[in-house]
Amino acid sequence: MSTGPLYRRVLLKVSGEALMGGRDYGLDPETVDRIAGEVKGVHEMGVEVCLVIGGGNIFRGLSGAARGMERATADYMGMLATVINSLAMQNALEKIDVDTRVLSAIPMAAVSEPYIRRRAVRHMEKRRVVIFAAGTGNPFFTTDTAAALRASEMRCDALLKGTKVDGVYDRDPLRDKNAKRFDRLTYLEVLSRDLNVMDHSAISLARENHIPVLVFSIAEAGGFAEVVKGEGRFTIVTDES
Predict the structure, then answer these.
(1) Is 79 a domain residue?
(2) Which pLDDT does position 60 carry in this prediction?
(3) pLDDT tens, residue by residue, 130-156
(4) Which of 113, 136, 151, 170 could cross-link to 159 by cystine, CB 3.0-4.6 Å?
């Protein structure tokens, strides 16, 4: 017998790369539609859902800076890439009758609403899916940090990070078949062992606000709904080991 959701309000962080599907660059419409379907499934369970989507499938600030571009300019370009992804996800969700709003940290009145915390909370209370675009609106911060920040501001019960693998490993499991997988970790273990969960700023924010971080595979069909119910394969990062 299936159990109900463990969380009332969650933030789903999806990397830009997760939207590429089998492509080397950009958006794969089928993958975007599939993830939108996953979000709808959780939304129909009565869970309030908000999203942060990365922009690495289009432009990554750090790699731009590495090629000689000024870091702040590169990061702003990365933020604009997240807006493109957010609009794509909004379109996919609304095609399947999920009322959705994009709120951008960089004002873009023609395509999105400005990010205002109380407005975002009200949208979710009205059963709308909210997509937070343009990161924090500031350079030098990743979309992981933006996800932890928005989860804290929205008072989310959990931050779920959808990745290509089914949890946190001590090494890249796609490159090393002997990589060790963790079922549970503490925030301090992630920070001290420099595990590749989220960047340190994001983990510290989640720790300060007591928001559990659950890492799972967004590629698994139904994976998002299973994790929200405490089922399936995932790694949970909390105060307690």
Answers:
(1) yes
(2) 77
(3) 999 999 999 999 999 999 999 999 999
(4) 151
Q: With 0-12 CB in 10 A as exposed, 13-18 as middle and 19+ as buried, what is 178? A: exposed
For residue 2, being part of any structural domain is answered with no
Strands 129-133 and 48-53: parallel
Rounded distance, CA 101 to CA 119, Å? 10
* 4 domain residue, yes or no: no
In this structure, what are the phi and psi dihedrals at residue 50, rounded to the nearest 5 degrees?
-130, 160
Q: Is 162 within 8 Å of 12 (Cβ atoms)?
A: yes
pLDDT at 2 > cutoff 80: no
Segments forming the whole domain that contains residue 190: 9-238
Distance of alpha carbon 97 from alpha carbon 205, whole angstroms: 33
Q: Taking the model in full, what pTM does it have?
A: 0.95
* Count of domains for the chain: 1
pLDDT at 241: 65
CA dist 203 and 44 (Å) reads: 29
- Average pLDDT of the chain is 94
How many whole angstroms separate alpha carbon 104 and alpha carbon 157? 22
Judged by average pLDDT, the poorest of 11-25, 95-109, 143-157 is 11-25
**Residue 173 sits in a domain of what CATH number?**
3.40.1160.10
Please report whether residue 13 resides in a domain: yes
Instruction: Say what angle helices 200-208 and 143-153 make with each other, to 10 degrees.
Output: 10
